[in-house]
Amino acid sequence: MEKDQVPQDQSNLTKNNVKELLYATDENGNYTTTLSTGWEPKTIALSNSIDEINERIADAKQQVLNGEVSPIVYFMEANKMDLNILSSYVGFWKWRVKRHFKPSVFATLSDKVLQKYADTFGISIEELKNSITK
């Protein structure tokens, strides 16, 4: 793509005055870098991804409120993590983290274990235990 044809569509990037670095060809046919504010297909894909993430967060919150899962699931989704990432951050085996998803197990966790989750999510133990139900 030529430098003067790089898309400059309105996107989520423009809301924060962020531009994306792209490669394009200049008038001599040499590759060069240029900035783009967005590209409609990419904006649509990004918007769909964000909508899906927000749905997963809302579902996780509802599951916590229904007593189906522990707050760890909500904060994992809210922090855009999955089981593998969360497991590596807290330093527990995946099966152990998955076990902590059970409300009955979560209720018995020590402050030391809860602190690892709280530190990972950037919140306090109190917020981990109670912020969803408020």
Outline the secondary-structure elements:
Layout: H1 12-15, E1 20-25, E2 31-36, H2 40-65, H3 71-78, H4 83-90, H5 94-100, H6 103-106, H7 111-121, H8 125-130
Antiparallel strand pairs: 1-2
If you had to describe this structure to a student in words, what would you say it looks like?
- With 134 residues, this protein is mainly α.
- It has 2 domains: 3-38, no CATH class; 52-130, Orthogonal Bundle (434 Repressor (Amino-terminal Domain)), CATH 1.10.260.
- Helices cover 55% and strands 9% of the residues.
- The protein is built from 8 helices and 2 strands.
- It has a two-stranded antiparallel sheet with strand order 1-2.
- The chain is elongated, with a radius of gyration of 21 Å.
- This is Phage tail assembly chaperone protein, TAC.
